[in-house]
Amino acid sequence: MVAMTSAATPKGTRRRSQLIEAAGSLLLEGGFDAVRHRAVADRAQMPLASTTYYFASLEELMAEAARQVTRDADEAIAARGAAVTRRRRGVGATAEVLSEVFVGVDTPIEELAARYELITLAARYPRLREVVEERRQHVSALHGEVLEKSGRQSEPEQVRWLIAVEDGAVVGTLGSGAESPFVAARAALGGVVDILAPRR
């Protein structure tokens, strides 16, 4: 029988979770650049060596922090999606409900920035690609559910393009601050809903 390492004990699991939570809060506050061994250890009030003991690399720690942040965000998205009523929606109403569910009227800018920073950094960090792909599958399925509830077609390829429009609209607002991401997404989606997700 293989002996249990201290990292796999209940205490070790708790400490690892504390470090991930600390890294996640730093990520939201300052982006991925803020996730550094010393900063994470200080935030978790643990010795510096703990970050290298519980994680094989900084990339692994970043990936786990990203996974937690996106999981929390996606749980909120899933809850908003579950609350969507089933009825046939026109263009404006469909764009509105998609924006409400997937962007959110009151979603903090920090959360949205982390969402899209993750996607761009995944080109450099293979471990982040796993998180991006997990999220892509989850969010695509949720888009399909909302469209189906709205009496709209939800073919996977069309959903992919719809998400691309949604993402592009949000990213376009993050650097300028001139318009709310929700409003920008609603306007952009309103121009393509009937093309990419026509009524059933």
What does the model show?
- The protein has helices at 10-30, 37-44, 49-54, 58-82, 91-102, 109-121, 126-149, 156-174, 181-190, 193-196.
- The protein starts with 9 loop residues before the first helix and ends with a helix.
- By secondary structure, the protein is an all-alpha fold.
- α1 (10-30) packs across α2, α4 runs parallel beside α7 (126-149) and α5 (91-102) runs antiparallel to α7 (126-149).
- Helices cover 71% and strands 0% of the residues.
- The protein has a domain at 66-196.
Topology:
Layout (H helix, E strand, L loop, with lengths): L9 H21 L6 H8 L4 H6 L3 H25 L8 H12 L6 H13 L4 H24 L6 H19 L6 H10 L2 H4 L4
Throw out a few tags for this protein.
200 residues; 10 helices; 71% helix; elongated; mainly alpha; 0% strand
Task: Report on the biggest sheet.
Answer: none
Compute the gyration radius: what is it?
19 Å
Query: What is the subunit organization of this protein?
Result: single chain
Structural class: mainly alpha
Spans of at least 5 consecutive residues whose pLDDT stays below 50 are none
**What is the 3D shape?**
elongated
* Number of beta-strand segments: 0
Question: What fraction strand?
Answer: under 5%
Helix content percent band: over 70%
Q: How far apart, in Å, are the first and last alpha carbons?
A: 58 Å
Order of helices and strands: HHHHHHHHHH
Count of separate DSSP helical elements: 10
Q: Calculate the mean pLDDT score and round it.
A: 92
